[in-house]
């Protein structure tokens, strides 16, 4: 059974890279270029198994999306992994209950390792 992954990042190269790495049948990958577009997907019932979330984006940041997901109770069935170059926010983000943190730029093996950990938890 494949896992659904939503990649939320305003960098189209990152979206494309992740889609190339996470191929069917193991993963079904969709993307959104900001938090507002991702929230819309959640509100329409398209809840992914895994959310790969950038923090710094225009329109709606990853921080705001996290807050919206928690306020609306939409976070409980999703494994959230934050992707950010800002390592200082790592401790704050982990306290919010996210399942993982990938420091940008990340390499393919880091992403694959993170996803294997999530599938065994």
Descriptive notes:
By secondary structure, this protein is an alpha/beta fold. It has one domain (3-119): Response regulator (Rossmann fold). Helices cover 39% and strands 22% of the residues. It has five helices and five strands. It has a five-stranded parallel β-sheet with strand order 2-1-3-4-5. Helix 2 (35-43) packs parallel to helix 3. The two termini are 16 Å apart. The mean pLDDT is 89.
Which features would summarize this protein structure in a list?
alpha/beta, globular, 121 residues, Rossmann fold
What is the CA-based Rg, rounded? Answer: 13 Å
Sheet-strand content, in percent, reads: 15-25%
Helical content (DSSP H or I, runs of 4+) = 25-40%
CATH fold group: Rossmann fold
Structural class: alpha/beta
Number of domains: 1
Low-confidence stretches: none
Strand line-up in the sheet with most strands: 2-1-3-4-5
Q: Number of DSSP strands?
A: 5
Shape, per Cα inertia axes: globular
Average pLDDT confidence is 89
CATH H-level superfamily? Response regulator
Task: Please identify the oligomeric state.
Answer: single chain
CATH architectural group: 3-Layer(aba) Sandwich
CATH class assignment: Alpha Beta
SSE pattern: EHEHEHEHEH
- Could you give a short account of the major beta sheet? 5 strands, parallel
